[in-house]
Design brief:
Length: 186
Amino acid sequence: MKKISSKKKSSRRNQIILGVILVFVMFGSVFGVVVNSFGQDSNSGIINYNGFEFVEQNGFWITKIDNLDFGFRNNPKEIEDIDGKIEISLENYYDKPLYIDSKNYEANSEIYNNLGEIVLRIQAGCFEEPCGENVPIKTCEENLIVIKEGNYSSITSDENCVFIEGPESNLTAITDEFLFKLVGIK
């Protein structure tokens, strides 16, 4: 009888200890959430820029223009203005083929993701030789975007060509700047 009574007391004591630990963990979690929420804006994933609302989703900044969603890796407030006049507008690309000469995957994907629904098709093109296998040489008579590494950030246009140049670490941001100007955000 003594063994049964001893086991019940031991079991009861373990349940009380476990209950106290669980209550402590629950209060600690609630306290952590409350403390962590101080100083945070409830709309931290939303910014407004020049009348456009950008919502952060999965690492991209999404905005809607004429019933089309545009997504950028950077929001317009994060990117410094790059001088240079672009003589091309979004209308130049509607239902026409677009060629891209670039070796930068992220910058390429910015163009594909944002202009893919507007253009007839997007494919690789080559502005200057040497060209890759099965990559056609293109001139500025066709819509061509050339993205390449350089020492200075610049965006220029010549006829139907756009030249995006800058340090490799900035090429995606410079491409976003070009797209902001192209769609009328900047």
